[in-house]
Amino acid sequence: MTEIKKLIDENGLRVDGRKLDEIRPIKIEIGLLANADGSAYIEQGRNKIIVAVYGPREAQPKHIGLHDRAAIRCRYHMAPFSTDERKSPAPSRREIEISKVIREALEPAIFSEYYPRSMIDIFIEVLQSDGGSRCAAITASSLALADAGIPLKDLVVACAVGKIDGKLAVDLSDVEDKLGEADMPIAYIPALRKISLIQMDGIFTEEEFFKALNMAKDACMKIYKIQKEALKQKYLQTEKE
Amino acid sequence: MTEIKKLIDENGLRVDGRKLDEIRPIKIEIGLLANADGSAYIEQGRNKIIVAVYGPREAQPKHIGLHDRAAIRCRYHMAPFSTDERKSPAPSRREIEISKVIREALEPAIFSEYYPRSMIDIFIEVLQSDGGSRCAAITASSLALADAGIPLKDLVVACAVGKIDGKLAVDLSDVEDKLGEADMPIAYIPALRKISLIQMDGIFTEEEFFKALNMAKDACMKIYKIQKEALKQKYLQTEKE
Amino acid sequence: MTEIKKLIDENGLRVDGRKLDEIRPIKIEIGLLANADGSAYIEQGRNKIIVAVYGPREAQPKHIGLHDRAAIRCRYHMAPFSTDERKSPAPSRREIEISKVIREALEPAIFSEYYPRSMIDIFIEVLQSDGGSRCAAITASSLALADAGIPLKDLVVACAVGKIDGKLAVDLSDVEDKLGEADMPIAYIPALRKISLIQMDGIFTEEEFFKALNMAKDACMKIYKIQKEALKQKYLQTEKE
Amino acid sequence: MSVTSQVEPLTKIKSKRMMKLLASGKRLDGRGLLDYREIKIENGVVEKAEGSALVSMGNTKVLVGVKIETGQPYPDLPNQGALTVNAEFVPLAYKYFEPGPPDENSIELARLVDRGIRESKTIDMEKLVIIPGKEVYVVFVDVYILDHDGNLVDAAGLAAVSAILNAKLPVYRVKENGEVIKMDEYVPLPVQNCPIPVTMVKIDDKILVDPTLDEENMASAKLTITLTKNGEICAMQKSGLGAFTLDEIVEAQKIARKKSSEIREKFFREWC
Amino acid sequence: MSVTSQVEPLTKIKSKRMMKLLASGKRLDGRGLLDYREIKIENGVVEKAEGSALVSMGNTKVLVGVKIETGQPYPDLPNQGALTVNAEFVPLAYKYFEPGPPDENSIELARLVDRGIRESKTIDMEKLVIIPGKEVYVVFVDVYILDHDGNLVDAAGLAAVSAILNAKLPVYRVKENGEVIKMDEYVPLPVQNCPIPVTMVKIDDKILVDPTLDEENMASAKLTITLTKNGEICAMQKSGLGAFTLDEIVEAQKIARKKSSEIREKFFREWC
Amino acid sequence: MSVTSQVEPLTKIKSKRMMKLLASGKRLDGRGLLDYREIKIENGVVEKAEGSALVSMGNTKVLVGVKIETGQPYPDLPNQGALTVNAEFVPLAYKYFEPGPPDENSIELARLVDRGIRESKTIDMEKLVIIPGKEVYVVFVDVYILDHDGNLVDAAGLAAVSAILNAKLPVYRVKENGEVIKMDEYVPLPVQNCPIPVTMVKIDDKILVDPTLDEENMASAKLTITLTKNGEICAMQKSGLGAFTLDEIVEAQKIARKKSSEIREKFFREWC
Predict the structure, then answer these.
(1) pLDDT for residue A3
(2) With an 8 Å Cβ cutoff, are A86 and E140 in contact?
(3) Do B35 and D147 make contact, defined as CB atoms within 8 angstroms?
């Protein structure tokens, strides 16, 4: 722990061989759960995340129902075996905060007003966590929502930009997140050209911040393509069946 | 703890002097609580267990009510002073599981369908625990149900058969349970000739299992007689009053 | 901790220079919170306590509503930084008991019957605690109730009498409470000439008890004057505005 | 958060009868205002507990078990054993008791019983030290309500003191190397006092001792006063939505003093 | 407190069809009464866990992760490692699962899987000691339900055993001064048995193995029997509102014996 | 689980007036879009706390108390003190706050304030070590909301930094035998930076700083940007059901930069 690790080598490559603006390999599977109304599974680096969507269904308990829109319920949860040290199954403060920001990242893309007094449930289970699990979870959640047939303004896609060894880099892995100097996840809704999640910790100068914003947007657009493709494959496959 | 204790002596008798197929002394008292609709107290070996039944009464909270039958609520709970080491009053995982299997041992004997939207509460307090407390609790609970005037297909009676020093023996005490090789509690409803609880842990060969089943049934029938007698005494006494 | 501290000096004065029947300096501010329907702040010695009253409002959840009177909800809570050692924010057994006795000290003074099916909330936050915080909280709570326009039979005022170095003394401070031999808080409703809270721990002879009761009442009447004055100032000020 | 609780109302007939009887100094069950119901104390009913007692007071039944373990002393009291009083209002005892963590009523009862024991120095806590500052006896007093027909405090207080009186303290030996060994030997707990709580309610300006549940539901306020063997007051607690005049409290103290010595004489040894 | 639970009723058409098929020994999905759905076991799916396995049984999907840490032994078992089995019925898996602490169903499942592992001595716990009485391995078996279409116990039991079989145990070295150092080296867990649970339900006096959720909802009672490699019974559990005759239990035991050896032969190595 | 929350709607008249005013760059309370309400900081209000500050921002009132204790360091950071930020939304402050464990809003606020302090290295945590790897200072920052009229984050952030600045650190001496003794001496906390959060909301495509509760209820989204003394961004958080364009975020960053230095100049010493 005490040795200072070099996160960028002499060739400008990162610990896992990536370039600074290169995202990790992504694998997506849609509709893999039988019970859920919609579901999606994502692997991004070593992240393995599964998302189920239930709904729209009647708000339960009733008092959470809203008269003018669907209530979105969102739970980001990590399996006890998803981390290096076993995690207690009880929700941590971190999981509670992330559940909230993910919900608020997804809500602007959902036509919630179509379903007053209903609720839409988004259940995220992190089976294995690497850095950037909240972003991968958002990317998968919007696919699960689409798979459930929930009307969306567009998919939501998310990616972080961070700072490692003083340089900006996209889609930080676990070790980069821990040893790096800053991390800024954003969620983007391409059709609306809007950012629905932005968080940051670490240190950014103004200049770095502007650059990071653009890098994040570009990375999001790459992932957006992969999302769209996965959705297309799923529909083609469904039609064949 | 390290010394290996002999559980059966040269005369084939157990630590407390019993024969292998001999149940522990049982003392039963019915209707001892003033507030409960029905109640029973049982001593079986060093077990001291008291059971109260409330109901049928309106299901509360309403959502637990069932449209076609009474909801049975059952709680097996150990007093903090009932064990060798003080037990925390919060329900343990063991108590939660036992509450469920006891409920499911009793339900087949109750004419639940007579009381839709109602609930019947069975509250079991183990004041002192010896081995086999779940069985003694079932035996007492069916008496408390009868005392409450809940219509029953028959009493439910329960007893365990275990393996100690390689031999099958009925109604294990605490020390036999701890040092023994297997324990299989069953609950029996004589009039239905049905087994409504069976659990097992430890190691049984097929042959042992068959033999144990029969020994358990025989032991149950012995306890059933004691149950019936206790109920009779209670009614005689009530008539006199 | 082991050294025995003298709580009364050769001149009969206490650690903070007070005489035996002298209360600590009191500072009261009424109506300082914008959101609450009524509020009051009290400093008594080093106690700093703030009280908000909300209501009468519809009972929530409904089942706590009473058909013939308002339900009073009361919460005495200590800030984590209010004590010498940081206090966990979760309510302690002591806080739960004090919430109850404060509620029962205030209820006899409230015309609860005017507001069936409603609730009146009294939220007490101890920002800094010295001895006698429950008494100071009662004194402030009745002012917050008055400020909220809740109809009262009279203000409730509270003060403790304790025994230090074998002598009776009013309004014990923290150190006196800890090292003293007895403490008896009482709450008094002057217009009704009634005691609505009395608790005691420690050792009182019969004679001491009678004397303490009278000293407590006298101390309450002194504080009652300060209460009344604070209320008057508040109304004068409100009229000016 | 403490909330005004629902009280189960008596039927009109019953409450009228109660009030009429009270006017002539009588009670529904035939007692005078200052009479206790029959008290029975059964000691040692739970053999696995170091001490235990079952107290019945009319239909009210309270069981107390005392468990004794070893543990660290409180940091600020390195030379004293530790005492914990806990009360369980188990749903078996009353139709409105719900399972779950202790509510304000059971916490209040436990803390009131605790104050009686602690302030009267019932147990000599300084004798409960095994290694000063390191290992002491921890005494758990668990109050278990089995049948609730009012006056739980007095029944619990009597049961607690009785269970403490019959509790056996396991003997530990400290070896030279500091190891602590449990011996197969027991001595009594070092008891030096017996606090006796007396609970009274006020109904229609009358003071009654040992209220039944019906009487508690009709009462405007309740007061417990606990007295030591020397006649000192060691704990007090008012509860309920009403209030007492000063005179009523003075009167209640006299009553408590009288009733506590009657109970003491009947049930406890001379020296405590 | 355990409460009779709501069961989602099948549509009339579906339940009639199920009953009709059952009468002729068939099931809704075409299986015979004693046929399992297709079982798939995928090992090592979670690399960060010391062991893991994903079992699917028809539409039922259960993931088990094994984490191994070090800690103190249980005071009464100083020379054994520790084992903890926990089950999460996460809301992702079924519309009626709610987030929150484990309920009675997940506790029952975890304890049943635990009994199978513990009683069959699946892991040689005595080999999991680092410093006797002080530091041992703690094995966490976390059962994660991903998709619930009935027979969670068998899927969980198979996944648990599979995850244990592929788990790697980090090696620790104890230095002379007692310091414990984690080496960059792994060995397999000392596994010596594989308990295989077989779950059956009773519908209309018929015994079916590997019930779907629809079948569980129609069943009067359920029975799990877990067998070791030597054909011994090591765990059993009846659940549900109904009951079994003695003969049915005897029959169920025969079925369980047969099905467990079929599964064992198909998925597990000879020696376990 | 996070659930879309109810928002208390403004009356139609009020919301119309707000929108009309906004169109001309004004607000209900007369402020310009980029004006803060009057900020008051009162230091040292709770003497028992090692540090404290009460911040009012219009009707919003937030009290922060800092307590300093000693304890073990985090295992992965043996040479640093520990910091814990906690926030209580006590029911006294707002009619919709309920007592109970922290909800998502108070957790989010606490974690946002925590990030500002931690990332800007407000406190030099490496100076908070008493015995490396064994005993360090633990700094508790407790945020207490007293009156909620919007913009809790900025008020909490200012109060936290102010309380840290006036906190006194008790001095401990380590004796040769390793014993740690508390001296009767205090020094300031080693403070090296002051993060200033600036919170903005978007209403009808306008960016407003320091929103009132009414404005928060009308806003589609909220953004906090926290800046260090050197003008670096050290924390950021978007919340609310809406979203921002890239341009809006760029604009918001400029505003935050300006407002944070105004606040810094007015309330904090040059060096931080």
Answers:
(1) 52
(2) yes
(3) yes
Chain E residues whose beta carbon lies within 8 Å of the beta carbon of residue B107: 4, 241
Q: What's the pLDDT tens digit per position in F198-209?
A: 999 999 999 999
Q: What is the DSSP letter of A8?
A: B
- DSSP 8-state symbol, C241: -
- CA distances E191 to B115, E165, E168, Å, are 51, 7, 11
**Is E8 an interface residue toward B (CB < 8 Å)?**
no
Q: Can you tell me the ipTM of this complex?
A: 0.95
Distance from CA of A95 to the nearest CA of E (A): 13
The upper half-sphere exposure of residue D50, i.e. CA atoms within 13 Å in the direction of its Cβ, equals 26
Residues of D in contact with B75 (CB under 8 A): 91, 99
Instruction: Report which of E220, E217, E225, E227 is spatially closest to residue E206, judged by C-alpha positions.
Output: E220
Identify the pLDDT of residue A4: 57
User: Considering the domain boundaries, does residue D225 fall inside one?
Assistant: no
Whether chain B has a CB inside 8 Å of the CB on D94: the answer is yes
Chain D residues near residue B145 by CB distance under 8 angstroms: none
Contacts of F92 in chain C (CB under 8 A): 33, 36, 39, 50-52, 123-125
Asked whether residue E270 is domain-assigned, the answer is no
E48 part of contact set with chain A, CB < 8 Å? yes
Chain C residues touching F90 at Cβ < 8 A: 77, 123, 125
Q: What are phi and psi of B13, to 5 degrees?
A: -100, 155
pLDDT for residue C4 is more than 60:
no
Burial of A11 per CB tally in 10 Å (0-12, 13-18, 19+): exposed
> Which CATH number characterizes residue D183's domain?
3.30.230.70
Q: List the end-to-end C-alpha distance of chain C, in Å, as a whole number.
A: 52
Instruction: With respect to residue F237, please indicate whether it lies within any of the assigned structural domains.
Output: no
Residues F194/F230, Cβ–Cβ less than 8 Å: no
The answer to the question of residue E40 being in a domain is: yes
Distances from the Cα of D204 to the Cαs of B9, C219, D193, D217, D244, in angstroms? 70, 29, 35, 13, 11
Beta strands in chain F (DSSP E): 2-3, 39-43, 51-57, 60-71, 82-88, 129-131, 135-147, 168-174, 180-188, 196-203, 206-209, 221-227, 233-239, 244-245
Report the run of H or E that residue D138 belongs to, with start and end. strand D135-147
Q: Which residues pair with F67 in a beta bridge?
A: F140
SS3 A84: coil
Does A have 3 or more CB contacts under 8 Å with D? no
B144: nearest CA in chain D?
A: D92
Domains of chain C (ranges; CATH) run 26-240 (3.30.230.70)
Interface contact flag, B104 E241, Cβ < 8 Å: yes
> Does F146 sit within 8 Å of C81, measured CB to CB?
no
- The mean pLDDT value of chain B amounts to 96
> Per-residue pLDDT averaged across E254-265, rounded?
97
241 residues of chain A, pLDDT tens digit each: 445 579 999 999 999 999 999 999 999 999 999 999 999 999 999 999 999 999 999 998 899 999 999 999 999 999 999 999 999 999 999 999 999 999 999 999 999 999 999 999 999 999 999 999 999 999 999 999 999 999 999 999 999 999 999 999 999 999 999 999 999 999 999 999 999 999 999 999 999 999 999 999 999 999 999 999 999 999 888 877 7
**Is D26 buried (19+), middle (13-18) or exposed (0-12) by CB count in 10 A?**
middle
Q: What total number of domains does chain E contain?
A: 1
Estimate the share of chain E in helix, then strand, then coil, as percent rounded to the nearest 5. 30, 35, 35
Q: What is the pLDDT of residue F270?
A: 66
Size of the A and E interface in Cβ pairs below 8 Å: 93
**CA D210, CA D33: separation in Å to the nearest integer?**
9
Smallest Cβ distance to C80: which of F101, F142, F146? Answer: F142
Q: How do F82-88 and F135-147 pair as beta strands?
A: parallel
Predicted confidence at residue E271, as pLDDT, reads 67
